[in-house]
Amino acid sequence: MHELSLALNVLELVQEECLKAEAVHVAELVITAGTLSGVDEEALTACLVIAAKGTVLENARIIISRKTGTGFCTNCRSTFPMEDILTLCPECHQAPSRLLDGQDLQVESLMVE
Ligand SMILES: [Zn+2]
Fold first, then answer.
1. What is the Cβ-side half-sphere exposure of residue 60, based on CA atoms within 13 angstroms?
2. Per the CB 3.0–4.6 Å rule, which of 5, 69, 72, 88 could disulfide with 36?
3. Distance 64 CA to ligand 1 centre (A)
4. What is the full per-residue pLDDT of the chain (113 aa) written as tens digits?
5. 70 CA to centre of ligand 1 in angstroms
6. pTM, entire model
């Protein structure tokens, strides 16, 4: 159900943008999801397709791209890329003490007609 509420948030944002741009239809929507956001891309796409019915987003091309997250290890003070939430520090194999990036979901671009 996490993806459905995210899809509704995205839809709301898209509708606001379309209103501002006086657009009647979205041709393409690009979303960036961090690898630490816990978002299931397939589920999110499916939810967006359902939520889009009868809105400006209906029949839009939906593209979800991944953005690699970043972790920080306070043990050895290294910063490293994290492909998922279980990635350990490559230097000392500790769990990262801090997540610096990759937990968010962003509307990257919107192509309207
Ligand atoms: Zn470390």
1. 34
2. 69
3. 31
4. 589 999 999 999 999 999 999 999 999 999 999 999 999 999 999 999 999 999 999 999 999 999 999 999 999 999 999 999 999 999 999 999 999 999 999 999 999 98
5. 13
6. 0.85
